[in-house]
Amino acid sequence: MRLAGRDLVAIEDLDRPVIEELLDSARSLIPAAEGTAAPRTLEGKLVAMAFLEPSTRTRLSFEAAVQRLGGRCVTIADPAATSIRKGETLSDTIRMISSYSDALVLRHPNSGAARLAADLSDRPVINAGDGSHQHPTQTLTDLAAIREAHGTLSGLRIVVLGDLKYGRAVHSLIWALALFGNEIVLTSPPSLRLPESARHRLRALGARVQEEPELSRALAGADILYVTRIQRERFPDETEYRKVAGSYRIDRTTLDAVGPGLRVLHPLPRLGEIAPEVDRTPHALYFRQAFLGVPVRMALLQAILGEGG
Predict the structure, then answer these.
(1) Can you name the CATH fold of 11-134+291-305?
(2) CATH architecture of the region 136-289
(3) Helices H, strands E: what count in the chain?
(4) Domain segments of the chain as ranges
(5) What is the pLDDT of residues 212-253, one digit of tens each?
(6) Catalytic entry in 58, 139, 187, 228
(7) Catalytic residue list contains 57
(8) Does the annotation mark 107 as catalytic?
(9) pTM of the complete model
Protein backbone atom coordinates (compact mmCIF):
# COMPACT_ATOMS: atom_id res chain seq x y z
CA MET A 1 0.00 0.00 0.00
CA ARG A 2 3.08 2.24 -0.07
CA LEU A 3 2.51 3.39 3.51
CA ALA A 4 5.09 1.28 5.34
CA GLY A 5 7.09 3.50 7.67
CA ARG A 6 5.42 6.69 6.46
CA ASP A 7 3.96 9.63 8.39
CA LEU A 8 0.36 10.80 8.07
CA VAL A 9 0.26 14.51 8.84
CA ALA A 10 -2.42 15.73 6.41
CA ILE A 11 -5.02 14.03 4.27
CA GLU A 12 -3.10 15.27 1.22
CA ASP A 13 -0.41 12.75 2.17
CA LEU A 14 -2.76 10.09 0.73
CA ASP A 15 -3.86 9.83 -2.88
CA ARG A 16 -7.21 8.45 -3.99
CA PRO A 17 -6.07 4.86 -4.66
CA VAL A 18 -4.40 4.62 -1.25
CA ILE A 19 -7.50 5.98 0.49
CA GLU A 20 -9.63 3.39 -1.29
CA GLU A 21 -7.22 0.60 -0.31
CA LEU A 22 -7.28 1.73 3.31
CA LEU A 23 -11.08 1.76 3.33
CA ASP A 24 -11.20 -1.69 1.75
CA SER A 25 -8.82 -2.93 4.43
CA ALA A 26 -10.89 -1.26 7.16
CA ARG A 27 -14.04 -2.97 5.91
CA SER A 28 -12.30 -6.35 6.09
CA LEU A 29 -11.18 -5.57 9.66
CA ILE A 30 -14.67 -4.85 11.03
CA PRO A 31 -14.95 -8.38 12.55
CA ALA A 32 -11.65 -7.83 14.33
CA ALA A 33 -12.82 -4.41 15.56
CA GLU A 34 -15.93 -6.13 16.92
CA GLY A 35 -13.81 -8.77 18.67
CA THR A 36 -14.89 -11.76 16.58
CA ALA A 37 -11.48 -12.14 14.90
CA ALA A 38 -7.99 -11.71 16.33
CA PRO A 39 -5.31 -10.70 13.80
CA ARG A 40 -1.81 -10.30 15.25
CA THR A 41 -0.28 -7.97 12.67
CA LEU A 42 1.05 -5.58 15.32
CA GLU A 43 2.33 -8.23 17.69
CA GLY A 44 5.59 -7.01 19.22
CA LYS A 45 4.87 -3.40 18.23
CA LEU A 46 4.56 -0.55 20.73
CA VAL A 47 2.65 2.59 19.74
CA ALA A 48 2.98 5.80 21.75
CA MET A 49 -0.16 7.91 22.19
CA ALA A 50 0.70 11.52 23.00
CA PHE A 51 -2.64 13.24 23.53
CA LEU A 52 -1.71 16.73 24.62
CA GLU A 53 -5.26 17.97 24.11
CA PRO A 54 -8.48 16.34 25.40
CA SER A 55 -9.85 13.42 23.39
CA THR A 56 -12.32 10.59 23.84
CA ARG A 57 -13.11 8.88 20.53
CA THR A 58 -9.79 9.43 18.79
CA ARG A 59 -7.62 8.28 21.68
CA LEU A 60 -9.74 5.29 22.67
CA SER A 61 -10.24 4.14 19.08
CA PHE A 62 -6.49 4.32 18.42
CA GLU A 63 -5.77 2.37 21.60
CA ALA A 64 -8.45 -0.18 20.71
CA ALA A 65 -7.06 -0.45 17.17
CA VAL A 66 -3.54 -1.21 18.40
CA GLN A 67 -4.73 -3.79 20.90
CA ARG A 68 -7.16 -5.45 18.48
CA LEU A 69 -4.14 -6.03 16.22
CA GLY A 70 -2.09 -7.57 19.00
CA GLY A 71 0.09 -4.53 19.73
CA ARG A 72 0.59 -2.49 22.90
CA CYS A 73 0.26 1.20 23.80
CA VAL A 74 1.92 3.69 26.07
CA THR A 75 -0.25 6.76 26.53
CA ILE A 76 -0.05 10.35 27.66
CA ALA A 77 -3.64 11.30 28.35
CA ASP A 78 -3.01 14.32 30.58
CA PRO A 79 -0.15 16.69 29.74
CA ALA A 80 -0.40 18.17 33.23
CA ALA A 81 0.99 14.88 34.56
CA THR A 82 4.12 15.05 32.37
CA SER A 83 7.32 17.09 32.19
CA ILE A 84 5.52 19.44 29.80
CA ARG A 85 4.16 21.05 32.96
CA LYS A 86 7.75 21.65 34.04
CA GLY A 87 8.48 23.46 30.80
CA GLU A 88 9.85 20.67 28.61
CA THR A 89 9.64 21.64 24.95
CA LEU A 90 7.51 19.79 22.42
CA SER A 91 10.67 18.98 20.47
CA ASP A 92 12.26 17.21 23.44
CA THR A 93 9.01 15.43 24.28
CA ILE A 94 8.71 14.10 20.73
CA ARG A 95 12.31 12.88 20.60
CA MET A 96 11.90 11.13 23.94
CA ILE A 97 8.60 9.43 23.13
CA SER A 98 9.83 8.32 19.72
CA SER A 99 12.78 6.56 21.31
CA TYR A 100 10.37 4.41 23.34
CA SER A 101 8.05 3.30 20.53
CA ASP A 102 7.59 2.04 16.97
CA ALA A 103 5.17 4.85 16.03
CA LEU A 104 3.76 8.02 17.54
CA VAL A 105 0.14 9.16 17.47
CA LEU A 106 0.01 12.87 18.37
CA ARG A 107 -2.80 15.24 19.25
CA HIS A 108 -1.79 18.80 20.00
CA PRO A 109 -3.60 22.16 20.37
CA ASN A 110 -1.22 23.98 18.01
CA SER A 111 -1.55 23.87 14.24
CA GLY A 112 1.63 22.53 12.69
CA ALA A 113 2.64 20.42 15.70
CA ALA A 114 2.22 17.18 13.77
CA ARG A 115 4.51 18.39 10.98
CA LEU A 116 7.11 19.39 13.55
CA ALA A 117 6.86 15.96 15.16
CA ALA A 118 7.23 14.21 11.80
CA ASP A 119 10.35 16.25 11.07
CA LEU A 120 11.89 15.40 14.44
CA SER A 121 10.89 11.78 14.90
CA ASP A 122 12.70 8.82 13.37
CA ARG A 123 9.48 6.82 13.84
CA PRO A 124 6.26 7.20 11.86
CA VAL A 125 4.01 10.00 13.15
CA ILE A 126 0.23 9.99 12.78
CA ASN A 127 -1.64 13.25 13.25
CA ALA A 128 -4.59 12.77 15.59
CA GLY A 129 -5.57 16.44 15.28
CA ASP A 130 -3.39 19.55 15.43
CA GLY A 131 -5.07 22.79 16.39
CA SER A 132 -7.44 24.00 13.68
CA HIS A 133 -5.24 22.53 10.94
CA GLN A 134 -6.19 18.93 10.10
CA HIS A 135 -7.51 15.63 11.42
CA PRO A 136 -6.77 13.09 8.66
CA THR A 137 -7.81 9.91 10.47
CA GLN A 138 -11.19 11.47 11.25
CA THR A 139 -11.58 12.08 7.53
CA LEU A 140 -10.81 8.43 6.75
CA THR A 141 -13.46 7.48 9.32
CA ASP A 142 -15.96 9.89 7.76
CA LEU A 143 -15.30 8.46 4.29
CA ALA A 144 -15.80 4.93 5.59
CA ALA A 145 -19.20 5.93 7.01
CA ILE A 146 -20.25 7.67 3.79
CA ARG A 147 -19.27 4.70 1.66
CA GLU A 148 -21.03 2.26 3.98
CA ALA A 149 -24.21 4.37 3.80
CA HIS A 150 -24.28 5.01 0.05
CA GLY A 151 -22.02 2.37 -1.47
CA THR A 152 -19.86 5.03 -3.12
CA LEU A 153 -17.66 8.00 -2.36
CA SER A 154 -18.33 9.83 -5.61
CA GLY A 155 -21.14 11.83 -7.16
CA LEU A 156 -22.84 12.71 -3.88
CA ARG A 157 -24.30 16.00 -2.65
CA ILE A 158 -22.76 16.63 0.76
CA VAL A 159 -23.76 19.52 3.01
CA VAL A 160 -21.14 20.59 5.55
CA LEU A 161 -22.72 22.62 8.34
CA GLY A 162 -21.16 24.48 11.23
CA ASP A 163 -17.78 25.83 12.21
CA LEU A 164 -15.89 25.80 8.92
CA LYS A 165 -13.25 28.24 10.16
CA TYR A 166 -11.79 26.41 13.14
CA GLY A 167 -13.05 22.86 12.53
CA ARG A 168 -9.99 20.78 11.63
CA ALA A 169 -12.10 17.73 10.76
CA VAL A 170 -13.88 19.85 8.14
CA HIS A 171 -10.61 21.10 6.64
CA SER A 172 -9.44 17.54 6.01
CA LEU A 173 -12.83 16.21 4.93
CA ILE A 174 -13.65 18.84 2.32
CA TRP A 175 -10.40 18.18 0.49
CA ALA A 176 -11.11 14.44 0.38
CA LEU A 177 -14.70 14.96 -0.77
CA ALA A 178 -13.44 17.13 -3.61
CA LEU A 179 -10.82 14.52 -4.52
CA PHE A 180 -13.64 12.01 -5.05
CA GLY A 181 -15.70 14.36 -7.21
CA ASN A 182 -18.59 15.23 -4.92
CA GLU A 183 -20.78 18.33 -4.84
CA ILE A 184 -19.96 20.18 -1.61
CA VAL A 185 -22.39 22.67 -0.07
CA LEU A 186 -21.00 24.86 2.71
CA THR A 187 -23.36 26.27 5.33
CA SER A 188 -22.10 28.28 8.29
CA PRO A 189 -22.50 31.48 10.27
CA PRO A 190 -20.84 34.31 8.28
CA SER A 191 -17.98 34.67 10.76
CA LEU A 192 -17.18 30.93 10.54
CA ARG A 193 -16.84 30.57 6.76
CA LEU A 194 -14.18 28.30 5.32
CA PRO A 195 -10.74 30.00 5.39
CA GLU A 196 -9.29 31.30 2.14
CA SER A 197 -6.38 28.86 2.35
CA ALA A 198 -8.82 25.95 2.21
CA ARG A 199 -10.75 27.58 -0.62
CA HIS A 200 -7.52 27.89 -2.59
CA ARG A 201 -6.85 24.15 -2.19
CA LEU A 202 -10.34 23.34 -3.40
CA ARG A 203 -10.02 25.60 -6.43
CA ALA A 204 -6.74 23.88 -7.30
CA LEU A 205 -8.62 20.55 -7.33
CA GLY A 206 -11.37 21.94 -9.55
CA ALA A 207 -13.89 21.13 -6.82
CA ARG A 208 -17.63 21.68 -7.13
CA VAL A 209 -18.31 23.89 -4.11
CA GLN A 210 -21.12 26.28 -3.32
CA GLU A 211 -22.06 28.31 -0.28
CA GLU A 212 -25.68 28.24 0.82
CA PRO A 213 -26.47 30.04 4.09
CA GLU A 214 -30.07 28.77 4.11
CA LEU A 215 -29.97 25.19 5.42
CA SER A 216 -33.33 24.14 3.96
CA ARG A 217 -32.10 25.03 0.47
CA ALA A 218 -28.75 23.38 1.09
CA LEU A 219 -30.46 20.12 2.08
CA ALA A 220 -32.50 19.86 -1.13
CA GLY A 221 -31.36 16.62 -2.76
CA ALA A 222 -28.58 16.07 -0.22
CA ASP A 223 -27.14 12.61 0.47
CA ILE A 224 -25.09 13.55 3.54
CA LEU A 225 -25.42 16.27 6.18
CA TYR A 226 -22.12 16.61 8.01
CA VAL A 227 -22.62 18.64 11.20
CA THR A 228 -19.84 20.08 13.34
CA ARG A 229 -19.87 21.82 16.69
CA ILE A 230 -18.64 25.37 17.12
CA GLN A 231 -15.04 25.03 18.32
CA ARG A 232 -15.29 27.18 21.43
CA GLU A 233 -11.77 26.36 22.60
CA ARG A 234 -10.22 27.84 19.43
CA PHE A 235 -11.88 31.26 19.59
CA PRO A 236 -9.38 33.96 20.59
CA ASP A 237 -12.25 35.95 22.13
CA GLU A 238 -15.06 34.48 24.24
CA THR A 239 -17.32 37.35 23.18
CA GLU A 240 -17.01 36.27 19.54
CA TYR A 241 -17.95 32.73 20.50
CA ARG A 242 -21.10 33.91 22.27
CA LYS A 243 -22.21 35.72 19.13
CA VAL A 244 -22.42 32.42 17.18
CA ALA A 245 -23.21 29.91 19.94
CA GLY A 246 -26.47 28.11 19.21
CA SER A 247 -26.59 29.35 15.59
CA TYR A 248 -27.95 26.05 14.28
CA ARG A 249 -29.69 22.93 15.54
CA ILE A 250 -30.79 19.78 13.70
CA ASP A 251 -34.00 18.22 14.96
CA ARG A 252 -36.87 16.17 13.57
CA THR A 253 -38.46 19.26 12.06
CA THR A 254 -35.25 19.99 10.14
CA LEU A 255 -35.34 16.49 8.69
CA ASP A 256 -39.05 16.39 7.80
CA ALA A 257 -38.42 17.57 4.25
CA VAL A 258 -35.28 15.60 3.43
CA GLY A 259 -35.09 12.43 1.38
CA PRO A 260 -35.15 9.04 3.13
CA GLY A 261 -31.57 8.34 2.08
CA LEU A 262 -30.02 11.35 3.78
CA ARG A 263 -27.61 10.42 6.55
CA VAL A 264 -26.40 12.74 9.30
CA LEU A 265 -22.76 12.55 10.34
CA HIS A 266 -20.95 14.34 13.15
CA PRO A 267 -17.34 13.85 14.33
CA LEU A 268 -18.56 14.31 17.93
CA PRO A 269 -18.75 15.48 20.62
CA ARG A 270 -22.00 17.31 20.01
CA LEU A 271 -23.01 20.25 22.16
CA GLY A 272 -26.65 20.76 21.26
CA GLU A 273 -26.35 21.11 17.48
CA ILE A 274 -28.08 17.75 16.96
CA ALA A 275 -31.13 17.08 19.12
CA PRO A 276 -31.16 13.66 20.84
CA GLU A 277 -34.48 12.89 19.10
CA VAL A 278 -32.54 12.59 15.83
CA ASP A 279 -30.73 9.56 17.28
CA ARG A 280 -33.90 7.51 16.86
CA THR A 281 -34.33 8.30 13.17
CA PRO A 282 -32.87 6.33 10.26
CA HIS A 283 -30.93 9.47 9.31
CA ALA A 284 -28.56 9.26 12.30
CA LEU A 285 -25.21 7.71 11.40
CA TYR A 286 -22.84 9.38 13.85
CA PHE A 287 -22.55 6.57 16.38
CA ARG A 288 -21.81 4.03 13.64
CA GLN A 289 -19.35 6.59 12.27
CA ALA A 290 -17.61 6.68 15.67
CA PHE A 291 -17.31 2.88 15.74
CA LEU A 292 -15.80 2.82 12.26
CA GLY A 293 -12.90 4.81 13.65
CA VAL A 294 -11.58 1.56 15.12
CA PRO A 295 -11.28 -0.53 11.90
CA VAL A 296 -10.13 2.53 9.97
CA ARG A 297 -7.30 3.18 12.41
CA MET A 298 -6.53 -0.54 12.48
CA ALA A 299 -6.12 -0.46 8.71
CA LEU A 300 -3.84 2.57 8.88
CA LEU A 301 -1.64 1.20 11.65
CA GLN A 302 -1.42 -2.14 9.88
CA ALA A 303 -0.37 -0.42 6.66
CA ILE A 304 2.31 1.64 8.40
CA LEU A 305 3.65 -0.92 10.88
CA GLY A 306 2.36 -4.35 10.00
CA GLU A 307 2.02 -6.79 7.15
CA GLY A 308 -0.40 -4.48 5.31
CA GLY A 309 2.48 -2.08 4.52
Answers:
(1) Rossmann fold (3.40.50)
(2) 3-Layer(aba) Sandwich (3.40)
(3) 12, 9
(4) 11-134+291-305, 136-289
(5) 989 999 999 999 999 998 766 666 666 666 666 667 889 999
(6) 58
(7) yes
(8) yes
(9) 0.92
